[in-house]
Amino acid sequence: MSNADVGDGDEVVLDAPGFIRVYKSGRVERFLPVDFAPPSTDAATGVSSKDVAILRDACVSARIYLPAAPSSGSYSGKLPVLVFFHGGGFCLGSASDAAVHAHANRLAAAAGAIVVSVEYRLAPEHPVPALYGDAWAALQWVAEHAAGRGQEPWLTAHADLGRVHVGGESAGANIAHHAAMRAGSEELGHGVKLSSLVLIHPYFLGGESSETDEMGVALLRELVRLWPVVCPGTSGCDGDPLINPMAEGAPNLSTLGCRRVLVCVGGKDPMRGRGRLYCEKLKGSGWRGEVEDWEADGQGHGFHLSCAMSAEAEAQVRVIAEFLSYG
């Protein structure tokens, strides 16, 4: 077929080989299929999971995880809640992917927490910032259970809604950040407040990069190309506070709506510098909370999913669990 035979709708606006191809018509081809794992009782951890609807009309749902009860058969008290968002560049991934599912099982077991892993809508079919609205809806859905209006029995019976945390990995960490910022200016309702924010390998772009690794440089270049496709009308990675919360003119981090923050980075993650800068900016913003950072030496972006049983991945889970235990 010659170029003259290709209609405008078949024009490719983004081609990330092996990941995603987006056409001018709006058609999307994804090349990383979800390795679906059904909800279950996990043999390794004893954590039980099930899928629940949050916004039926918008197809927003969650997979909820309940840690195994002690040998006595009952919990000694109410359990904290972690509302969590998976990664995937805003356009890939799922809460039901096997690697994401396994990680949520490990987090729930290690932290002794109910994990609400949100299945938000994906860009570019639902451009950023639509998924930020999905995240806020998920938090409000959890908060409703404090007033006895919620319909999810695991939350009604077992959740301590005085200890609600929000977190995510990669693009999900970006989403979690924006949810926590919104919680600083809006009420979740029913007296529920966010206790803490957990950012795992946060997906922030913009500014000068000191990255020298060839593969890291190539990845950053592709992510910069991807951003205007998933967020049409953006001013670019340097100046857009949605992807660069440290940008000049971005909302002041002092308004972050939680008391504590944990930022985890990989020592070989090309976005590690942005995560470190986020910590520095937060500490200098006038925010009155506590910020902690943790680095996995020599590890790349998302290593806890690709090398889930490594010593570093297990250490990262322990760090997060310990952080949440003090929330």
From TrEMBL:
Matches recorded under Pfam families: Abhydrolase_3
InterPro entries found in the cross-reference section: AB_hydrolase_3 (IPR013094), AB_hydrolase_fold (IPR029058), Carboxylest/Gibb_receptor (IPR050466)
Record lineage: Eukaryota, Viridiplantae, Streptophyta, Embryophyta, Tracheophyta
Naturally occurring in which organism (per UniProt): Sorghum bicolor
Molecular function in Gene Ontology: hydrolase activity
Protein name from the UniProt record: Alpha/beta hydrolase fold-3 domain-containing protein
Alpha/beta hydrolase fold-3 domain location: 82-304
TM helices/strands, residue ranges: none
